[in-house]
Design brief:
The chain is α+β, with helices and mostly antiparallel strands and 59 residues long. 44% of the residues lie in helices and 20% in strands. It has helices spanning 5-17, 34-46, and strands at 23-28, 51-56. The radius of gyration is 12 Å and the shape is elongated.
Length: 59
């Protein structure tokens, strides 16, 4: 099954509504803009994500 961003956010939201702690992670350093990073963090906060890990890809 191919991952879809909106579907992933929906899964996190539903798990959170069910009382579970949620976690997500993002990788930086692959050409994303600062605004894309901030938008992603905002989206995760909007669905109540409890934990966010951020990794840096070193080129």
């Amino acid at each position: 099954i191919q991952a879809k961003y909106d579907r992933s956010l929906e899964v996190l939201y539903r798990l959170k509504q069910g009382g579970m702690k949620t976690k997500s992670g993002i990788m930086l350093g692959l050409g994303e803009t600062e605004q894309e990073i901030l938008d992603t963090i905002d989206d995760l906060a909007d669905v109540g994500c409890d934990i966010l890990t951020i990794g840096q890809y070193l080129q």
